[in-house]
Amino acid sequence: MSTSRIDKNGPQLGPTPAEGSKAQSVKGTPVQQGQATKGAQNKASAALKEGTFDVEISSKGKERAQSMQKAFDIAKNTPDVREERVKQLKEQIDNGTYQIDSGNIADGMLREAIKEQLAENPE
């Protein structure tokens, strides 16, 4: 696990803390969990006001961030309109060969209704 510093210039990687250590750091001052001293609390408050924090990001968190970035990039680079599909549909309509599948429409409507119901009542 690595330590990242987040300040006004963005995140910056730092040294890896000792494995198994439960110590946290605010501006380089170690604080044992549950045993924060008044001085450490003051330094934590100062760091909060200053906008500089030491943050540890797990490898799973980094993997998730990379996955989310990849998904965002794919979505950003995917066109809003699938030109080839629109062309195919226009040709089918012009030729009189376009057929509506009422079963697919009903399935889609039911899927959306179920999603909405689950979103409203997640229990």
Q: In what order do the strands lie side by side in the largest sheet?
A: 2-1-5
Unreliable stretches (pLDDT < 50, length at least 5) are: 15-27
Quote the beta fraction: 15-25%
Overall shape: it is: elongated
Distance between the termini: 35 Å
Give the number of helices: 4
Helix content: 40-55%
Average pLDDT metric: 77
Provide the gyration radius in Å: 26 Å
* Biggest sheet character: 3 strands, antiparallel
> What's the helix-strand series?
EEEEHEHHH
Broad structural category:
alpha+beta
How many beta-strand elements? 5
What can you see in these coordinates?
This protein has 123 residues and is of the alpha+beta class. 52% of the residues lie in helices and 19% in strands. The protein contains four helices and five strands. The chain has helices at residues 38-50, 59-77, 83-95, 102-120; strands at residues 2-7, 10-13, 23-26, 29-32, 53-57. The chain has a three-stranded antiparallel β-sheet with strand order 2-1-5. Strands 3-4 form a two-stranded antiparallel sheet. A hairpin with a 2-residue loop joins strand 1 (2-7) and strand 2 (10-13). Mean pLDDT is 77; it is low at 15-27.
